[in-house]
Amino acid sequence: MNTDRPRFVVLTRGALMELVDAQLKQAKVLAPVTGGEEGTRFEFITDAREIYLDYATTIMPPTKKVFLPQEGVTFLTWKKENGKTVFASPADTEPLVVFGVHPYDIRAFQIWEETMLRGKYEDPVTKARLATLTIVGLDITEPPRDSFAASVDAHVVTDGYDLMLTILATDRILAEARTEKGAALLEGITYRDAAQSDIVERDRLREERATKYPHTLPTSSESVSEFLMQHANHPLFTETGDLCVACGKCTVICPTCTCFSPVEHSTLDGTEGARTRVAASCQVPVFTLVAGGMINRKSAGDRFAHRLFDKFVYHESEGSHGCMTTCVGCGRCVAICPAHIADPVKTIEQLQQGAHHE
Ligand code: SF4
Ligand code: SF4
């Protein structure tokens, strides 16, 4: 729950590590680490010293690690007992601290919540997981190379976290406790109350960094939505979509792509089993395969356009966090696409340049 007035304190890196170590005694902690072939990634840590605070971005976003990990999430189990089938819905109830989340990924958590808990069809798996979550945000120091978060207003967030960290200098970190949970994280930690000048410095750094995004949408996300609606049948979608190799990577690594497929497992004797959700991609033809063998979105161009429309058009009127778009501009799809076509900025620019050729 948000507190009426956020509390600002200043910590050293050592104190921050103390905070994490204190959490590790009572919760699982998912945090950015680096090294090895995979590079920087979010992982469950056992020691605060594993954390890599100065990261640019990660391939896999924290939302996917939390809600739809690669190994899948088991959401239903069944067992035959005394001639009856007994069903259970396992839920992860252990507290989870997600530490060091960049603003665009905090926005992704908000979008995930809106998508999965909106209206009367609440997803119980997401709801249960959200109830255990504490989010510790971290302002970026350098905009990630392919990110255009500032174009979709996801480079700075003012809610959606419990504690927000801003590195003001190497060993001077401003922490803003936004919720009661966030304030509780500071208990027992050495800090000083922040001065007004610390907060002013944070705001100045945020403004300065907002201008450093090398990658920007050519227009506001609201205008992008309108523009896409006007050019929904542009031939560029087919031309570019034909280059897609349907690997599905752009959706698997997208922090706001929530689609999944249920997979059923059972023992050979059929006495028990489970149902697991695994990530699905709208960019592969079988995504829309239905009984009888019909594929509803067979054309690569339609699939290519669908991803862009899903990010900039379909959810436009639904955001209660001011999310006019479900693209947070993280740039992960830009970096991962083997065909170099998944960049929303590039597609929108090309559409604008070629719109008159329709
Ligand atoms: S569409 Fe691309 S840039 Fe936008 S949120 Fe998804 S991965 Fe990030
Ligand atoms: S990453 Fe690129 S090639 Fe792979 S499905 Fe997405 S658009 Fe197609």
Summed up:
The protein has 358 residues and is α+β, with helices and mostly antiparallel strands.
Which helices and strands appear, and what pairs or packs with what?
Layout lengths: L1 E10 L1 H12 L3 E6 L7 E4 L17 H6 L5 E9 L2 E5 L7 E6 L1 H15 L6 H8 L1 E6 L24 E7 L2 E8 H6 L6 E2 L2 H15 L10 H10 L4 H7 L7 H4 L7 E7 L5 E8 L20 H13 L19 H5 L7 H11 L4
Bound molecules: iron/sulfur cluster (SF4) (2 copies).
What does this molecule look like?
- Helix content is 31%, strand content 22%.
- It is built from twelve helices and twelve strands.
- The protein is α+β, with helices and mostly antiparallel strands.
- An eight-stranded mixed beta sheet has the order 3-2-6-7-8-9-1-10. Strands 5-4-12-11 form a four-stranded antiparallel beta sheet, with no helix packed on it.
- The protein has two domains: 2-70 and 91-210, no CATH class; 221-259 and 280-356, no CATH class.
- Bound molecules: iron/sulfur cluster (SF4) (2 copies).
- One iron/sulfur cluster binds next to helix 9.
